[in-house]
Amino acid sequence: MALVVQKYGGSSVATAERIRRVAERIVETKRKGHDVVVVVSAMGDTTDELLDLAQQVCPAPPAREMDMLLTSGERISNALVAMAIHSLGAEARSFTGSQAGVVTTSVHGNAKIIDVTPGRVRDALDEGSIVLVAGFQGVSQDSKDVTTLGRGGSDTTAVALAAALNADVCEIYTDVDGIFTADPRIVPDARHLEKVSFEEMLEMAACGAKVLMLRCVEYARRYNVPVHVRSSYTTKPGTIVSGSMEDIPVEEAILTGVAHDRSEAKVTVVGLSDQPGFAAKVFRAVADAEINIDMVLQNVSRIDTGKTDITFTCPKADGPTAVEKLTKLQGEIGFTKVLYDDHIGKVSLIGAGMKSHPGVTATFCEALADAGINIDLISTSEIRISVLTKDSELDEAVRVLHAAFGLGGDEIAVVHGGTGR
Amino acid sequence: MALVVQKYGGSSVATAERIRRVAERIVETKRKGHDVVVVVSAMGDTTDELLDLAQQVCPAPPAREMDMLLTSGERISNALVAMAIHSLGAEARSFTGSQAGVVTTSVHGNAKIIDVTPGRVRDALDEGSIVLVAGFQGVSQDSKDVTTLGRGGSDTTAVALAAALNADVCEIYTDVDGIFTADPRIVPDARHLEKVSFEEMLEMAACGAKVLMLRCVEYARRYNVPVHVRSSYTTKPGTIVSGSMEDIPVEEAILTGVAHDRSEAKVTVVGLSDQPGFAAKVFRAVADAEINIDMVLQNVSRIDTGKTDITFTCPKADGPTAVEKLTKLQGEIGFTKVLYDDHIGKVSLIGAGMKSHPGVTATFCEALADAGINIDLISTSEIRISVLTKDSELDEAVRVLHAAFGLGGDEIAVVHGGTGR
């Protein structure tokens, strides 16, 4: 008998019919003799509808009330799944994040889990119930207010519960059959991966692979919780995310896949003094605006002027704020101008095999060059190469890299719409 | 400076536009220098939509999960009102029933308030915030589960909070201008009442007046909380429910109004032994099925047979269960047959003046007789006369009684649709 944590995304519970199907899958797991804890996202469009209502009554809603509002979505979906389980003759009990002991920081809209004290969950399991926990939410340690965990929060709830309950596996049910070597919507022959190490998955998630959110993978790696990514709509085996890259024998180490990301914008600060401390001033200004920076490039200084340029990428949504903040500090920091480009895309090749195979970077650049795709900026890690391209060339970049490294499979992947949170 | 508790029903917050108007009224009260606590029902059709969803996933949903589901409706409306208040430049904080300290019994779907410990509400008031509390819900003392208070629960939440906070007044905002001498939809010249005693309001509510629910009035009377019933749509003065009937000087005591109720059914047990204990068996059987009985009539025994008939009324929804239960026990209890009639209506005349004015019952019966309306069953209290009629004759009965006792006013009441919970 195992303890299984399952998480179902919003599209998996978008209608009463889908809720009934999810309930069947949950009850099936329970009838195999396992203890089952289930985390469900809000139904399909619920969150968007609530956001729309909020916008109608208040242009800039306070974050605390926004959390109170949005968390009702998961209350609804979890109670409905509990009811559907009940109608199949099994016992089920739903808990809010707070009731399940998900204790967080007080940052409304983007709280971090500090601790999980699942006493009530454990008691309900011991009584033979299937336990439902509302994902994406918790209660702040200081003020005991309702908080939300930000994007991908339900996945994080599931992994955190799995860690706290010492579960055997955390199954993430989504609308795809697992992790692929590239997004099957762009690369039709993208190959399904049976197993991915935590490190590779971290790089994939950081580079825009949307199946698992970065924070969820970080949590799983830290607490060593095996994550099983599966489709809600099929019984295919999915992908197991577990173990360290170090455990993969060098000769078996391969390239994992190609990830892409359209969510970033590029900011360039032109004509900055190339002296110690000036780059720091730029990044401090951006950090003060609570903006996360991804890639960074500093050009070599021009001998004639002693000036340099700094380029960084950040989320598109934060781009205008970054530009505004820097422009305001132009006199204080000292630079010529700020350039902004939100028509960019990032494509990344990830794989533990990169370490032991020379020439990967060369092949990477050649493939893009052959397709006439210009590289704007390059950044690498031990197991990743990322470049910026024009957004209009991103899909083609994904396809040529996927082909150049022979990542394709024989099977054409089936694509379903939508993603949960 | 006063402490004011305000309650807004579901129709008052049915749209974003109405939510903004409610917010304006709340902020206006706050700007007059008062501390304000607000209880809001779920938006318009939310509850019906959630009930419909529940029905689709489970024909007989467990009550605990139903409470988890339905309470999200008030979470949504309260957070939205808090946001709307925020956009008007005032501070607002919303709390769930549990956070506001509304502690209840564990009877899901119909829990009773045991205690209110509004520590967090008080703290937020002290910090200058307007406080929103989700109505209709609490947390069970034993299991710490989310509970609901049943019909009219938000009114009860408001009155209970007003009592616990020692508020100066509890304002119930609804879709009518206050309490009238009869339902203005039936009697166009129904007169608005400025003030009604708790006892009179209790009888009105018990006899079908829907403006305030019985439990809310009982709570207000017990804790002596003045209740001010007002319209969300106008600034008319409304009706104050407060004080004891005993405080009304005899010469000023008058008739309060005519109430009606279409929600009951009539059950007659025919041919019961007229010996001690047999009636008790009938009522024990009905009580065991958790059915509330309203009116009761036992005929005089027939000399030839020593048998009698017992008639009672109960909610229409429970009628079939009552008949089934009694039929099952027919042999054990011993009677000839059970008759069932759900085409009945109850009309009641209420007023403290009844005590000191002889002839009220005679006028009552004459008025109905003159209109050709047959009386099926009569029951009276110190300040009330109620009779059963055919449901098709109920509206006419209300009108002729209202006219016979000269209760009409000059103004034609304005009627809005819908009621909250």
Label this structure with key terms.
eight-stranded mixed β-sheet, Carbamate kinase, globular, 12 helices, four-stranded mixed β-sheet, 421 residues, disordered C terminus, homodimer, alpha/beta
Q: Give the assembly state of these chains.
A: homodimer
CATH level 3 topology of the domain at 3-247 in chain A: Carbamate kinase
Q: Quick one: how many beta strands of chain A?
A: 20
The structure class of chain A reads: alpha/beta
Protein name (chains A, B): Aspartokinase
GO molecular function, one term (chains A, B): aspartate kinase activity
EC number (chains A, B): 2.7.2.4
Domain ACT (chains A, B): 267-343, 349-421
How would you concisely characterize the structure shown here?
2 copies of one chain form a homodimer. Chain A has helices at 16-31, 46-57, 63-87, 119-126, 153-164, 198-206, 214-222, 278-288, 319-328, 330-333, 360-370, 394-404, and strands at residues 3-8, 35-40, 92-95, 102-104, 113-116, 130-134, 137-140, 146-148, 169-174, 195-196, 227-231, 239-241, 257-261, 264-273, 296-298, 307-315, 337-341, 344-350, 377-381, 384-390.
